């Protein structure tokens, strides 16, 4: 019997493939980790990075919920990116263009917290790892590093694109959305490092 968690039951045509999943995971910066702790639902937004077939996460060793999921509790990790507002001529037909994914499984501890921190950092700020001092043993000891394997049959990705899908004589359309960086705000030092300045540079072409 197929579980309702294994496939889309509503609008199955919106399901996307592994390549689209990887693209979404590489673009998004934040996902939500969810599980059950002491019989109650628990969710927390977390920075993450995809590394091949793994989703990498990290946090403080003092976080009790992270210790809980590190011992094998089943989890779901959700990611959502909004690409545009879809404007129709009725409120009912308004919508949004988006990409989303849910990856289920069991988190596994990663012994090499240093590599996880570096992969995460270079995803958020490419090149920053090479600009800062080495992470200390004390800092690594305070860090729990986890990976969530991306396993076939344990993830669902979907997307909506296009316009409102209804004919109208009134104006309808899409307002595209994207994430942009503003110029950095200095708190100390003279000039922001190259990796930080590169974030705010307009794309080439």
From TrEMBL:
Organism superkingdom: Bacteria
Protein name: Pyridoxamine 5'-phosphate oxidase
SUPFAM superfamilies in the record: FMN-binding split barrel
Gene3D superfamilies assigned to the protein according to its UniProt record, in alphabetical order: Electron Transport, Fmn-binding Protein, Chain A
Record-linked Pfam families: Pyridox_ox_2 (PF12900)
């Amino acid at each position: 019997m197929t579980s309702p968690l294994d496939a889309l039951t509503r609008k199955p045509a919106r399901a996307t493939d592994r390549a689209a999943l990887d693209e979404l995971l590489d673009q998004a910066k934040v996902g939500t980790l969810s599980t059950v702790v002491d019989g109650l639902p628990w969710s927390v937004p977390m920075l993450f990075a995809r590394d091949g077939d793994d989703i990498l996460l990290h946090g403080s060793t003092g976080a009790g919920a992270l210790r809980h999921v590190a011992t094998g509790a089943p989890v779901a990790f959700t990611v959502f990116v909004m690409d545009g507002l879809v404007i129709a001529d009725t409120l009912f037909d308004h919508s949004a263009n988006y990409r989303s994914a849910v990856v289920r499984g069991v988190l596994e501890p990663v012994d090499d917290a240093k590599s996880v921190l570096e992969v995460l950092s270079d995803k958020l700020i490419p090149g920053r790892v090479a600009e800062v001092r080495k992470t200390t043993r004390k800092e690594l000891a305070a860090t729990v590093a986890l990976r969530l394997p991306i396993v076939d049959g344990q993830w669902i990705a979907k997307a909506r694109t296009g316009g409102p899908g209804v004919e109208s004589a009134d104006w309808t359309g899409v307002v595209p959305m994207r994430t942009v960086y503003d110029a950095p705000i200095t708190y100390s030092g003279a000039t922001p490092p190259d990796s930080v300045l590169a974030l705010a540079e307009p794309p080439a072409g």
